[in-house]
């Protein structure tokens, strides 16, 4: 368990927020597929591949209040962010559908889930990875000073 000094450290709170967002995102992803029966597309699987290990990395980082957690989490969060960005660009027609990676099964450009007309699952993923990256940047700045 982390010591009292590490819990009073403002970096610990930032890391906890990143962990909380990662856990909520992973559980939401599992809820969409297991409970709501929304099968993930190819790009959603890639985003899961980058998201799920972050839960273990942040848990380890919280346990030891380890500042090197950024070194391991940043590449995964960055790759997930790029895949989410690419999928959103596909959905909004900025990237042509001729180069979409899914040719069979669930389409990467269609979403069965939509809130307020614009909040799709890929948009939720993009927002989650963006917030995680901002939290990692903030965490890194606090520890580098």
Write the layout of secondary structure elements.
Layout: H1 4-8, H2 10-34, H3 42-64, H4 69-91, H5 121-144
Main β-sheet description: none
Mean pLDDT, nearest integer? Answer: 87
**Percentage of residues in helical conformation:** 55-70%
Helix/strand/pairing class, anyone? Answer: mainly alpha
- State the helix count: 5
Radius of gyration: 17 Å
Runs in which pLDDT lies below 50 for 5 or more consecutive residues are none
Give me the count of strands. 0
Shape: elongated
Element string (H = helix, E = strand): HHHHH
Distance between the ends = 25 Å
Strand portion? under 5%
Structure explained in plain terms:
- The chain is built from five helices and no strands.
- Helix 3 (42-64) runs antiparallel to helix 4 (69-91).
- The model has no long low-confidence stretch (mean pLDDT 87).
- The chain is elongated and about 45 Å long.
- By secondary structure, the protein is an all-alpha fold.
- The chain has helices at 4-8, 10-34, 42-64, 69-91, 121-144.
- It starts with a helix and ends with a helix.
């Amino acid at each position: 368990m982390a010591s009292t000094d590490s819990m009073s450290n403002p970096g610990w709170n930032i890391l906890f927020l990143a962990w909380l967002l990662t856990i909520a995102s992973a559980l939401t992803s599992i809820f969409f597929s297991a409970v709501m029966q929304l099968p993930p597309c190819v790009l959603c699987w890639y985003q899961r591949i980058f998201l799920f290990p972050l839960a273990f990395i942040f848990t380890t980082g919280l346990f030891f209040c380890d500042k090197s957690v950024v070194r391991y989490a940043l590449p995964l969060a960055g790759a997930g962010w790029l895949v989410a960005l690419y999928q959103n660009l596909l959905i909004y027609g900025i990237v042509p559908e001729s180069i979409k990676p899914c040719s069979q099964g669930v389409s990467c450009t269609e979403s069965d889930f939509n809130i307020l007309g614009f909040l799709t699952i890929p948009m939720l993923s993009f927002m989650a990875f963006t917030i995680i990256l901002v939290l990692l940047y903030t965490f890194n700045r606090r520890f580098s000073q």
